[in-house]
Design a protein that fits this description.
The chain has about 110 residues and is of the alpha+beta class. Strands 1-4-3-2 form a four-stranded mixed beta sheet, covered by helices on one side. A hairpin with a 3-residue loop joins strand 2 and strand 3. The chain starts with a strand and ends with a helix.
């Protein structure tokens, strides 16, 4: 799971950023007064799924299990999360390291 943190100055900017991410197929997972958590679900590369399905149908059924493991990995651990927040420090008092929108969209649209 990749967590990206985007900085917003106020709630209007948080909503604007979340709308922009929604256009890129991110969905809201949680929303509070000072943050919005969004996720883009990834299912894996379609070509890899097709390859494993063909191998599973014509060569060995173990490829279907590999395909299921690949799908599970892509869905649960490779899906990027974005935290849009107005806060500057973590709960421990450390400064947050913010990402840019370009970094978020690059990871979200990455094939592998």
């Amino acid at each position: 799971m990749d967590l990206f943190i985007l900085k917003a100055d106020n709630s209007k900017e948080m909503n604007r950023i979340s709308e922009e991410l929604s256009e890129h197929k991110f969905t809201k997972k949680q929303e509070e007064k000072h943050f919005i958590l969004m996720q883009k679900k990834r299912y894996g590369n379609y070509y890899v799924h097709i390859l494993f399905l063909v191998i599973g149908l014509f060569v060995t059924a173990w490829a279907l299990l590999v395909n299921l493991v690949y799908f599970t990995y892509s869905y649960l651990w490779a899906s990027p999360y974005v935290l849009i927040t107005t806060e500057m420090k973590s709960e421990e008092g450390e400064d947050l390291e913010f990402n840019t929108m370009e970094q978020v969209l690059e990871k979200a649209n990455k094939l592998f």
